[in-house]
Amino acid sequence: MAVDRGGIMQIYHRVAPLRQALAQARARGHTVAFVPTMGNLHEGHMQLVRLARARCDRVIVSIFVNPLQFGLNEDWEKYPRTMEADIARLEAEQCDFLFHPSETEIYPNGMADQTRVVVPTMTDILCGASRPGHFEGVTTVVSKLFNIVQPDQAVFGVKDYQQLAVIRRMVEDLCIPVEIVGAPIARDADGLALSSRNSYITPAERPRVTLLYKVLCWCRDEMTQNGRRDFAAVEEEAVRQLQEAGFRTDYVSIRNARTLETAAHDDDEIAVLGAMYTEGARLIDNVTLTLG
Ligand code: PAF
Q: How many domains does the chain have?
């Protein structure tokens, strides 16, 4: 049933009035879908918003560049903040609520003393190995945002595959009453996965960085078309292809799609995850496949 959305997007910076507005929506029987973001919104985010809109009566997006998930030498300060453009895009998508809190609104007792949410083991591998503390920052802020918004559903991009798996595990382990929805990866015409950090890629490198996706697809095809199950050898060859093209590789890894453990020969659902460094950016991508 179509719901009268009743006007333009409402923007909140504080928790209390946002909660009031969401309580009113729920009192009217509306379901709420939540899309947490760090802003600098692109078409990939818009696809998350559209999916949220298709699944629930009301859509809320948050924009918060969460300092807790950035390492000391990472890009928190230079992370692109494009608020006006973001608001215009969200209004064009008929988003109902935007939550754009300050750091003190989210961390009123300071970050050092903030209670943390930790998903063990699966956060120590892959991106977690090269970005220590990153996922702890993500799970802490996402659980806070879930408590603030109390959505029926929350939509995350499959692009951040490990993040999505970690959030699913957190929600399961902590019995958080929210349905987690994964949205397919949005790609440029040449295959590059859309990301807010793509703006760091230098123009000279831009045509070459699609190699990461091509190599992940090569891994997939080796398994699905050529029947290979020597996962470690496939990974090694993939890394070699990236290195020969001059890219420093963080990892190419074939994993159980749900647990992110190293893939076993009898695993059906597989994710191939990759991360590599370009001059300007660290890029991640993934492909998934089912083995018969
Ligand atoms: O994927 C992101 O943009 C962030 O990690 C998230 C989920 C909004 C938490 O800050």
A: 2
Query: Could you identify the atom of ligand 1 that is nearest to the CA of residue 160?
Result: 1
In this structure, are 205 and 115 located in the same domain? no
Distance, CA of 240 to CA of 154 (rounded, Å) = 37
Evaluate whether residue 188 is within a structural domain.
no
Q: Could you tell me the residue range of the domain that residue 253 belongs to?
A: 196-290
Query: What's the average model confidence in pLDDT over 188-209?
Result: 96
pTM to 2 decimal places: 0.96
Mean pLDDT of 139-148: 98
Residues 58 and 125 in one domain: yes
Relative to the CA of 65, which ligand 1 atom is closest? Answer: 10
pLDDT in tens, 19-60: 999 999 999 999 999 999 999 999 999 999 999 999 999 999
Q: Is the CB of 211 under 6 A from ligand 1?
A: no
Asked if residue 217 is part of any domain, the answer here is: yes
Give the pLDDT of residue 5: 52
Q: Is 142 in the pocket of ligand 1 (CB under 6 A)?
A: yes
Closest C-alpha residue for ligand 1 atom 6: 37
Active site residues: 45
Please spell the DSSP secondary structure of 80-143, one letter per residue. Answer: ---HHHHHHHHHHTT--EEE---HHHH-TT-STT-------STTSSTHHHHSTTHHHHHHHHHH
